């Protein structure tokens, strides 16, 4: 942690860890302000965790969360009040520190000369010229001109964003392309199931973002605040404006931990874990190794979620470890699923049911987790079975693996790009926006009815790249996405049911049955997941190498 001093009473910093709180106290800070909403990133501790650490260190903590770029006057007023009320000096943080600096700048605008504000922020490493424009324009960020302009702007440097940037650069080497993402670290999230199962080490799933940005692509290390498609403009955190000719939107989704009462306060302790967070997946394996008896509950929220098989993967790998240790007979495994089926594509269900039987798992459908009491070790579920009045049931646990509800990111849901449910509204075949012809989307954020998996993004990236290239050349889209997604269901250590399917549940196997029969558990599929897919991801997909994912072409109608 390296706080950046803005004034005698305030320093700002990028996201801090729980361990940084004691360090901040040792550096003389007496209060902490969090300006970052919970669950913006998969490696982010919740405010409740930071607050508990602050209280233990004898510090005060205040929560003033702001969605990137959507800083309201009331937020600035709340920040100003906090700086007046809290004992100083104060440490404020968000993802990068920009929101904290923005709030301070706006709060100080009525009493401090603007040049002085800009100079103080600049000395701390923050460019507040966009904020100055906002102040000068009565609170609005003008988008008729921009701070930078590119042929193609890509929002989000996850699996979809880096892959489509690389694929597009291969097709059009001379394009000016900007990739917007504030994260320092890129994660291979499909590996977190294996971390939670004791197969991978967590650090093998993480690499620095700078090492992965394709050559010739400009990385703008900032969060996106808003879109103004009428002006072909993206507004960044700090009120800067980037203009584009074409836009690709792929920021992923948001894990909505806060929707489950009491969850944030107990994540990573009291036997409560989740493979959906980088820092918690190792705790899953720690719990599995330590459990000798009692009840283990695995949850699945309502769809859509990232990788619909992941809740079960955690359960099967845990059960297999307990079986091999000889303690499975003493462990009551409950799978509480908000949905009504074990898996959405029926062809794979028989194989999964055989493992449910093998491990003695109790299936509880229509059970949606709504609250957790960590110290009491109880979980409460809303039970809403068809044609019955909803009820609640509370269950005790010794281990609880939680999959959080999942939604589109806040800045997407409030944007003109979103459908009524908050997802980017695209044509499911071309992945072009239904309203704005120069905008495309891929990955977890868009509303095509496919499985939200990294394998889906691997197939979508060349489709979008080709269709953007076609548009640049003045042609109609030539590539189609068939809904392909893959979910390697780790049913035991050493065997996987390789579910591959497209729109409508159509089976789309990549291999002949004699090599891998995806409807049956196989060793070959496990070797694919463990040994082959990670290098395919790092060295192929993220570098624009379209192995086994060449886009399906539009077929001209016969005469």
UniProtKB/TrEMBL annotation:
Residues 4-110 form the Beta-lactamase hydrolase-like protein phosphatase-like domain. GO terms for molecular function: FAD binding; hydrolase activity; quinone binding; sulfide:quinone oxidoreductase activity. It comes from the Bacteria. Gene3D superfamilies: FAD/NAD(P)-binding domain, Protein tyrosine phosphatase superfamily. One of its GO terms (biological process) is sulfide oxidation, using sulfide:quinone oxidoreductase. Keywords: FAD, Flavoprotein, Oxidoreductase, Quinone, Transit peptide. The keyword Oxidoreductase applies. Its cofactor is FAD. SUPFAM superfamilies: FAD/NAD(P)-binding domain. Pfam families: BLH_phosphatase. PANTHER family: SULFIDE:QUINONE OXIDOREDUCTASE, SULFIDE:QUINONE OXIDOREDUCTASE, MITOCHONDRIAL. This is TIGR01244 family phosphatase. It comes from Pararhodobacter aggregans. The lineage of its organism: Bacteria, Pseudomonadati, Pseudomonadota, Alphaproteobacteria, Rhodobacterales.
């Amino acid at each position: 942690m390296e706080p950046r001093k803005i004034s005698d009473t305030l320093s700002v910093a990028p996201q801090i860890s729980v361990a940084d709180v004691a360090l901040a106290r040792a550096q003389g800070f007496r209060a902490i302000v969090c300006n970052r909403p919970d669950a913006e990133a998969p490696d982010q501790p919740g405010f409740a965790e930071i607050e508990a650490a602050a209280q233990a260190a004898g510090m005060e903590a205040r929560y003033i969360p702001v969605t990137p770029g959507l800083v309201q006057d009331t937020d600035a007023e709340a920040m100003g009040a906090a700086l007046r009320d809290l004992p100083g000096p104060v440490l404020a943080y968000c993802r990068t520190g920009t929101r904290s600096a923005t709030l301070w700048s706006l709060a100080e605008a009525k009493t401090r000369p603007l040049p002085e504000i800009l100079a103080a922020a600049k000395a701390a490493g923050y460019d507040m010229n966009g904020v100055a424009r906002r102040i000068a324009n009565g609170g609005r960020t003008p988008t008729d001109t921009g701070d930078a302009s590119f042929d193609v702007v890509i929002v989000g440097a996850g699996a979809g964003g880096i892959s489509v940037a690389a694929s597009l650069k291969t097709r059009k080497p001379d394009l000016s392309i900007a990739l917007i993402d504030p994260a320092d670290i890129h994660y291979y999230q499909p590996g977190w199931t294996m971390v939670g199962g004791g197969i991978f080490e967590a650090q093998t799933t993480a690499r620095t973002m700078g090492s992965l940005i394709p050559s010739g692509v400009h990385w703008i290390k900032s969060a996106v605040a808003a879109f103004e498609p009428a002006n072909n403009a993206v507004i960044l955190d700090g009120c800067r404006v980037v203009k584009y000719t074409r836009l690709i939107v792929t920021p992923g989704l948001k894990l909505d931990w806060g929707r489950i009462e009491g969850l944030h306060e107990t994540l990573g302790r009291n036997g409560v874990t989740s493979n959906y967070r980088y820092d918690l997946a190792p705790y899953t394996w720690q719990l599995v190794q330590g459990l000798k008896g009692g009840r283990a509950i695995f949850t699945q929220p309502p769809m859509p979620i990232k990788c619909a098989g992941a809740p079960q993967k955690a359960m099967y790998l845990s059960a297999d470890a307990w079986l091999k240790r000889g303690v499975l007979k003493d462990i009551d495994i409950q799978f509480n699923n908000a949905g009504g089926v074990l898996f959405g594509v029926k062809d794979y269900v028989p194989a999964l049911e055989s493992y449910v039987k093998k491990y003695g798992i109790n299936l509880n459908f229509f059970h949606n987790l709504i609250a957790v009491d960590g110290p009491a070790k109880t979980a409460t579920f809303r039970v809403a079975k068809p044609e019955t009045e909803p009820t609640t049931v509370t269950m005790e646990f010794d281990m609880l693996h939680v999959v959080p509800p999942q939604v589109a990111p806040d800045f997407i849901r409030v944007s003109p790009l979103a459908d009524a449910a908050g997802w980017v509204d695209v044509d499911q075949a071309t992945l072009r926006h239904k309203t704005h012809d120069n905008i495309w989307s891929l990955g977890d954020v868009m509303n095509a009815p496919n499985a939200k998996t990294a394998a889906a993004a691997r197939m979508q990236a060349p489709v979008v790249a080709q269709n953007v290239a076609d548009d640049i050349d003045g042609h109609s889209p030539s590539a189609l996405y068939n809904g392909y997604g893959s979910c390697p269901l780790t049913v035991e250590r050493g065997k996987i049911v390789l579910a591959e399917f497209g729109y409508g549940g159509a089976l789309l196997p990549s291999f002949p049955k004699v090599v891998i029969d995806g409807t049956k558990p196989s060793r070959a599929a496990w070797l694919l997941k463990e040994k082959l897919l990670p290098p395919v991801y790092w060295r192929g997909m993220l570098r624009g190498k379209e192995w086994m994912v060449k886009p399906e072409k539009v077929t001209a109608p016969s005469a």
